[in-house]
Amino acid sequence: MLAPFIHTQSCAGRRLDQLEIAALLRSCAGITGQSDETKLAAIMAIFPELPSGDVVEVGGFWGRSAFTLAWLAARIENGPVLIIDPWQAEAALQNSVSELVRRDTRAQDWELIYQGFLLNLLPVARGRLGFLRMTSSDAHRRYTQGPSLIESPPFGSLTYGGDIALLHIDGNHDEAAVALDVALWVKHIRPRGWLVLDDYVWPHGNGPARTGDALLRALGDEAAISFVAGKALFIRMA
Ligand SMILES: C[S@@+](CC[C@H](N)C(=O)[O-])C[C@H]1O[C@@H](n2cnc3c(N)ncnc32)[C@H](O)[C@@H]1O
């Protein structure tokens, strides 16, 4: 599975070896979450090629992909990482899914999930990862009012530069919500930076797919590379 992601002479020394990849996947498997191994392995593969800059994730949940990003930011010396999530049922509710899934979202203990995120991330977060407990649009206002010193107790404070090396959009998957995330955040991705749009392939609705396709059309040649890994769409900016 990992062979297609192990690549290039250009990042030799920075790229992960197989033991590191296996160890990181194993750690992530211990965190409740919805990021599959293939997407995480692809993120591990592109990370050494990123320009320097902020690493931003919309949708942290229990912290499975956030753990990967924090570990990679330390290993490859990039970032800092910013995780955005309100950890609150109302924001997490999605119109496009079945009533069964909506009921499950309402029934979740979002305070417990937030506490679980802190617990899961504490070993790797200090000096590398911060978070904003708010919606993506409120966080965008905060991120762009600069200079962005963000305090994330108990992880400490970090200053964000305002240019994004890697953007992972994995928040509310309703089409309007994904389109808003893309409209707000993609413009901050640096040249040669990457977007990972989760659940481009998704059985519950076509919000991420329609948004991803519209973005690819709008970007044209500005999308230097694009591919699907796991269920996520990866795009590298020119
Ligand atoms: C699919 S989960 C994220 C999965 C996570 N990345 C992982 O690896 O397990 C979606 C998350 O998006 C969050 N979310 C929902 N609406 C949001 C919004 N407007 N802004 C930021 N996060 C949002 C939810 O609270 C939920 O924790």
Describe this structure in words.
This protein is of the alpha/beta class and 238 residues long. The two termini are 27 Å apart. Helix 1 (18-29) packs antiparallel against helix 3, helix 3 (64-76) runs parallel beside helix 6 and helix 8 runs parallel beside helix 9 (207-219). Strand 1 (54-58), helix 3 and strand 2 form a beta-alpha-beta unit. The protein has helices spanning 18-29, 37-46, 64-76, 89-92, 99-107, 110-125, 136-144, 175-185, 207-219, and strands at residues 54-58, 81-84, 129-132, 148-152, 156-160, 164-169, 189-197, 223-229, 232-237. The chain has a single domain (34-237), classed as Rossmann fold (3-Layer(aba) Sandwich). It contains 9 helices and 9 strands. The strands form 2 sheets. A 7-stranded mixed beta sheet has the order 3-2-1-6-7-9-8, sandwiched between helices. It has a two-stranded antiparallel ribbon with strand order 4-5. The relative contact order is 0.15. The protein is globular and about 50 Å long. The structure holds S-adenosylmethionine (SAM).
Quick tags:
Rossmann fold, seven-stranded mixed beta sheet, two-stranded antiparallel ribbon, 9 helices, 9 strands, binds S-adenosylmethionine
